[in-house]
């Protein structure tokens, strides 16, 4: 085993983005909990005038968790593990340090400004691409900065071969760059109309069905290259690193990676099944979604097999628990998605709560668990301190696991029920339920989901507290732990 | 089977049973509709396969030990085995991939599926059959059918009981009041879009008008005043309406209201010509007319 | 072969780019021209309706409402004829939505009316007991941005050749000349409404958001 004692890595950027991950995670999930509560108790819509309605807040939730929390998490982990697996300190290049700091501040200020713009009602309405054009430009700038920084670091690396995690971060960078650019082509109306109206307003470059195709080619793959690819990159580093186990199979890593790259992009039209998109495209989307189970499960299985024989680590290291459960939730959402992409199943699932159910077993069980585990692993090493409390971590784990299970089971039942009620006919063949019947019947499930939000958010606060305590008052470490993270 | 597997499958079964229970309680037939059946099958597949496969691998943490040839590479202390692919995974991948190629290049093109084509065939046939089956439905059947259509399409304005939601739309639970009929006789009305010319004012007056209004407001019960003949010229001998000339006033004129809409004193009633079929209209008529009686 | 690739970042990145690009080329491009064709006799939305569409986007109604009637009997019975590609040809962006917390609205103009919307937007639960839709009272006092809607019409006309008539031209003067047309259309909608705030704003030549929104909803047929 090589030692890396000779090399001092520079964690200043990773630390900065770690703070943002926690901040945006808290804000995004707070808003998530609020909107969940609003669906159960609509009176809660009126706490903040027009800015507090469910519909204004929903994009705040999605954008804060996606572009705030998840992307910060990706940056934080990249600036940590990128250096380590490439065996080069980012501080070896002044240029890269300056670039990274510009990226950070542009991102922080841009994210806040963009959130305010959504709150004020500036929105281009495409899901996960709501920001108006000036913010798109900021996003592109940030992304280019990150790209240069990745390439730069790779350029000065000492480790010749790229580690699996780097494959995934590279793919994340390239995929998002391509998708974001094409989907956000929009024309500002102010300039074309000779200075009329609101300078922030724009119209989409594409119309109708075409616009839908571009949007969901983007939307699906934003999930792919935001919630899947970089998170897989994380687990490929943090699980073997924390457990001290070698990756089970290089071949499995290889096939899963290239399989995922090839198949993911074709599946976008499963968001447009039964719409006015041509049948053959829908069929391609459906069929490739089913194929997608395998490259997705390949990575998860590779991770579970890496832990072969390590039952004792699973039971007494909560960090390993987080990652193993994350893998299984990843498996759950990557078979649930493909099944929902089967046309007959989609006829029921689409438009219902089963979709947010699918979304959240992915994001809560997989994305957030993995990012929190990464932070639990990184902070003791970056701050050279022991984790403040293992007990708190255990409690958090069980609390949040309960919350995810409540979330997805309640939405699963709600979605299937509502989808079937919409179709139900009475003995004569006329519709059996009015629309409002299908809304009121969901109240208990919405209430359960709101409760699950409160539990999950509480868990996240416990996490944030534990991390901050670790940074400030964890027992100091004299040398970096090789594998298992020390915890009090 | 070990206890973890039993717990996981138990959870999967519980979730499925709960889902089926909730759906069945809402009188939904899961098996009659193939889409429902396939969805339930899909749900079962998700729950069972995920539980079984993930627990299979998690169990290996207990029972197996890591082994294999380590490769030369090492990154930040992370090594890599050169193990072969897990065969179950590899064969499934191969099979699914071949299926998708076959389906994309042969299965699908040969079937030449068209979702709109399927809709047009299936639904048009279904609707024709529906109209045929219920063409001569009896009054009780129509009324029952009408109630459920009313609850789906009309209650948003007329209220679940047909009371018009405190004056926001026509109240069907009573007949038109005498005062209202009198006012129509005195002032005329031009609200139903099916009759662009409207009804002229002053077709009757004084005691005649009073008598007619009382008779109409009572739902055409009792003796018909002789002077109703004036009205009958447009509205038919028993107020049942005459096409193109006058609407039904024996109850509410469902037909013309649904066909073209009405913009009256209360507000605007949209036309429902795209959503209501002839049999459904008959059913709605039976139901709405029954409300006041 | 793969080990080689993993040691050459440039080729590695190129390989990823190639593998992820061609799905988009094959799936999206071939249909572009065809899906862009409008139905015959279809006219683009009026400026007031566009302003209403912008209110719909601002208050993000597609968080809960779809505009896509799928070809199922259960949907065509509830909402009317299934949606056709050509109907959306002028929609920038498309507003199909992905969640139906509330009903589909693609043909809402066929079976709801101005006065109903007025009451419903003010307090949905009063009209439909059990509704979880928020009340949008601020739309009765906020003034719709009809100038931006006009700028949008000019933009799509100039850039995408959307068939707006000769009256829609760039520049302040053209807008001033066109404005009365928009106000006249708004007056017709407002005439069916009862709210005092709406009436007084209209009297001052201002169009409350709810009026534009209803113009848009009524145009969904
Ligand atoms: C094999 C992989 C996957 C496939 C084939 C898949 C498939 C699907 C399908 C069919 C839908 C529903 C579309 C609709 O009817 O509206 C969907 C929605 C969604 N999925 Fe997945 N899914 C996969 C994995 C994941 C994962 C791992 C995540 C997140 C961690 C995720 C996040 C989402 C999100 C956010 C949506 C909602 C999109 C919207 O706004 O409508 N998916 N997915
Ligand atoms: C406390 C935890 C959370 C709660 C209570 C929560 C709640 C919600 C609610 C109520 C919705 C709207 C669903 C609807 O319209 O029917 C939603 C949507 C969504 N949330 Fe969360 N959320 C939470 C955390 C997260 C996290 C951490 C992420 C991502 C990392 C996330 C990603 C999303 C996405 C992508 C959607 C849009 C789904 C769609 O359009 O289909 N959420 N969430
Ligand atoms: Ca944008
Ligand atoms: Ca969505
Ligand atoms: Cu997708």
3D architecture notes:
The complex is a heterotrimer of chains A (488), B (293) and C (221). By secondary structure, chain A is mostly helical. Helices cover 72% and strands 1% of the residues of chain A. In chain A, helix 2 (54-86) runs antiparallel to helix 3 (94-119), helix 4 packs antiparallel against helix 5 (164-183) and helix 13 packs antiparallel against helix 14 (390-423). The longest helix of chain A is centred in the middle third of the chain and has 36 residues, at 208-243. Chain A is globular, with a radius of gyration of 23 Å. Chain A starts with 11 loop residues before the first helix and ends in a 15-residue tail after the last helix. The mean pLDDT of chain A is 95. Chain B is mainly α and 293 residues long. Chain B has helices at 3-25, 34-63, 87-111, 115-133, 139-153, 155-158, 164-167, 178-187, 206-217, 228-235, 254-260, 278-291; strands at residues 262-263, 268-269. Chain B has a two-stranded antiparallel sheet with strand order 1-2. The relative contact order of chain B is 0.08. Chain C is mainly α and 221 residues long. Chain C folds into 2 domains: 2-35; 47-218, Orthogonal Bundle (Cytochrome Bc1 Complex, Chain D, domain 2), CATH 1.10.760. Chain C is globular and about 75 Å long. At the B-C interface, helix 4 and strand 2 of B face helix 5 and helix 7 of C. The complex binds protoporphyrin IX containing FE (2 copies), calcium ion (2 copies) and copper (II) ion.
Question: In terms of topology, how is this protein built?
Answer:
The complex is a heterotrimer of chains A (488), B (293) and C (221).
Chain A: H1 12-40, H2 54-86, H3 94-119, H4 133-155, H5 164-183, E1 186-188, H6 189-192, E2 202-204, H7 208-243, H8 250-264, H9 279-306, H10 311-316, H11 318-340, H12 343-349, H13 354-382, H14 390-423, H15 435-440, H16 443-473
Antiparallel strand pairs in A: 1-2
Helix pairs in contact in A: 1-2, 1-3, 1-16, 2-3, 2-4, 2-7, 2-13, 3-4, 4-5, 5-7, 5-8, 7-9, 7-13, 8-9, 9-11, 11-13, 11-14, 13-14, 13-16, 14-16
Chain B: H1 3-25, H2 34-63, H3 87-111, H4 115-133, H5 139-153, H6 155-158, H7 164-167, H8 178-187, H9 206-217, H10 228-235, H11 254-260, E1 262-263, E2 268-269, H12 278-291
Antiparallel strand pairs in B: 1-2
Helix pairs in contact in B: 1-2, 5-12, 8-9
Chain C: H1 2-6, H2 9-28, H3 32-35, H4 47-58, H5 73-79, H6 108-111, H7 114-122, H8 124-127, H9 146-160, H10 172-191, H11 196-203, H12 209-219
Helix pairs in contact in C: 4-9, 4-12, 7-12
The structure holds protoporphyrin IX containing FE (2 copies), calcium ion (2 copies) and copper (II) ion (CU).
């Amino acid at each position: 085993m090589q030692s890396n004692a000779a090399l001092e890595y520079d964690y200043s950027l990773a630390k900065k983005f770690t703070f943002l991950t926690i901040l945006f995670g808290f804000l995004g999930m707070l808003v998530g909990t609020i909107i969940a509560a609003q669906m159960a108790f609509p009176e809660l819509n009126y706490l903040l005038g027009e800015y507090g309605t469910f519909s204004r807040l929903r994009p705040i939730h999605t954008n804060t968790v996606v572009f705030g929390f998840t992307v910060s998490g990706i940056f934080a982990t990249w600036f940590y593990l990128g250096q380590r697996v490439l065996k080069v300190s980012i501080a070896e290049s002044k240029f890269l340090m300056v670039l990274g700091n510009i990226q950070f501040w542009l991102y922080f200020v841009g994210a806040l400004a963009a959130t305010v713009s959504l709150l004020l009602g500036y929105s281009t309405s495409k899901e996960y691409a709501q920001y108006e054009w000036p913010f798109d430009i900021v996003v592109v700038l940030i992304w280019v900065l990150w790209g240069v920084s990745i390439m730069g670091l790779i350029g000065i690396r000492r480790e010749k071969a790229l580690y699996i995690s780097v494959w995934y971060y590279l793919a994340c960078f390239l995929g998002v760059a391509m998708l974001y650019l094409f989907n956000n082509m929009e024309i500002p109306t102010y300039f074309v109309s000779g200075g009329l109206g609101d300078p922030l307003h724009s119209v989409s470059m594409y119309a109708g069905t075409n616009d839908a195709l571009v949007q969901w080619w983007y939307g699906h793959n934003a999930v792919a290259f935001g919630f899947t690819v970089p998170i897989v990159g994380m687990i490929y580093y943090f699980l073997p690193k924390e457990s001290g186990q070698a990756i089970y199979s290089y071949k499995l890593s290889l096939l899963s990676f290239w399989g995922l790259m090839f198949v993911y992009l074709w599946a976008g039209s499963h968001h447009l099944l039964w719409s006015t998109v041509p049948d053959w495209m829908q069929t391609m989307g459906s069929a490739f979604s089913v194929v997608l189970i395998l490259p997705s499960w390949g990575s998860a299985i590779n991770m579970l097999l890496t832990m072969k024989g390590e039952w004792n680590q699973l039971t007494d290291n909560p960090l390993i628990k987080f990652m193993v459960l994350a893998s299984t939730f990843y498996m759950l959402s990557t078979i649930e998605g493909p099944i929902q992409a089967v046309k007959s199943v989609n006829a029921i699932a689409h438009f219902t709560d089963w979709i947010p159910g699918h979304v959240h077993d992915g994001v809560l069980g997989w994305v957030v668990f993995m990012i929190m585990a990464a932070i639990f692993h990184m902070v003791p090493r970056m701050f050279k301190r022991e984790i403040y409390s293992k007990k708190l971590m255990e409690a958090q784990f069980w609390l949040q696991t309960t919350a995810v299970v409540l979330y997805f089971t309640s939405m699963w039942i709600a979605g299937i029920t509502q989808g079937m009620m919409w179709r139900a006919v009475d003995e004569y063949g006329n519709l059996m339920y009015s629309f409002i019947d299908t809304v009121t019947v969901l109240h208990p499930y919405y209430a359960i989901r709101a409760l699950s939000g409160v539990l999950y958010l509480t868990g996240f606060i416990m996490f944030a507290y534990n991390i901050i305590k670790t940074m400030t008052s964890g027992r100091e470490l004299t040398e970096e732990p090789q594998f298992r993270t020390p915890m009090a | 089977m070990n206890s973890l597997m039993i717990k996981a499958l138990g959870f999967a079964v519980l979730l499925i049973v709960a889902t089926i229970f909730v759906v069945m309680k809402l009188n939904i037939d899961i098996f009659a509709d193939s889409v429902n059946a396939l969805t339930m099958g899909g749900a079962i597949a998700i729950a069972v396969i995920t539980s079984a496969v993930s627990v299979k691998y998690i169990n290996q943490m207990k029972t197996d030990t890591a082994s294999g040839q380590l490769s030369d590479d090492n990154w930040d202390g992370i090594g890599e085995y050169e193990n072969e692919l897990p065969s179950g995974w590899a064969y499934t991948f191969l099979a699914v991939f071949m299926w998708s190629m076959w389906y994309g290049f042969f299965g699908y093109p040969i079937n030449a599926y068209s979702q709109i084509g399927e809709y047009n065939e299936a639904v048009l046939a279904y609707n024709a059959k529906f109209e045929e089956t219920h063409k001569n439905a009896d009054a009780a059947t129509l009324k029952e059918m009408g109630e459920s259509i009313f609850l789906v399409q009309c209650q948003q304005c007329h209220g679940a009981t047909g009371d018009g939601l405190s004056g926001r739309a026509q109240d069907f639970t009573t007949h038109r009041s005498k005062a209202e009929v009198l006012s129509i006789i005195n002032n005329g009305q031009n609200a139903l879009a099916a009759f662009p010319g409207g009804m002229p004012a002053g077709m009757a007056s004084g005691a005649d008008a009073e008598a007619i209004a009382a008779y109409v407001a009572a739902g055409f019960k009792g003796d018909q005043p002789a002077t109703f003949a004036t009205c009958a010229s447009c509205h038919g001998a028993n107020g049942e309406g005459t096409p193109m000339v006058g609407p039904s006033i024996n109850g509410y004129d469902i037909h013309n209201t649904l066909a073209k809409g009405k913009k009256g004193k209360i507000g605007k009633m949209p036309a429902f010509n795209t959503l209501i079929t002839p049999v459904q209209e008959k059913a709605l008529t039976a139901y709405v007319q029954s409300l006041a009686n | 072969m793969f080990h080689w690739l993993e040691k050459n970042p440039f080729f590695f990145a190129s390989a990823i780019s190639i593998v992820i690009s061609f799905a988009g080329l094959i799936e999206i491009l071939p249909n572009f021209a065809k899906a862009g064709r409008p139905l015959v006799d279809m006219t683009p939305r009026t400026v007031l309706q566009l302003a209403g569409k912008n209110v719909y986007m601002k208050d993000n109604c597609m968080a809960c409402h779809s505009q896509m009637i799928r070809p199922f009997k259960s949907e065509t019975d509830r909402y009317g004829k299934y949606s056709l590609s050509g109907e959306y040809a002028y929609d920038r962006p498309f507003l199909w939505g992905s969640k139906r917390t509330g009903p589909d609205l693609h043909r809402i103009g066929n079976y709801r009316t101005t006065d109903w919307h007025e009451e419903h937007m003010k307090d949905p639960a009063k009209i439909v007991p059990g509704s979880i839709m928020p009340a949008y009272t601020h739309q009765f006092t906020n003034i719709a941005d009809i100038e931006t809607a006009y700028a949008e019409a000019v933009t799509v006309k100039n850039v995408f050749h959307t068939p707006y008539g000769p009256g829609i031209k760039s520049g302040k003067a053209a807008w001033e000349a066109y404005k009365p047309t928009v106000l006249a259309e708004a007056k017709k909608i407002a005439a069916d409404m009862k709210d005092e705030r709406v009436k007084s704003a209209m009297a001052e030549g201002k169009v409350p958001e709810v009026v534009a929104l209803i113009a848009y909803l009524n145009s969904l047929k």
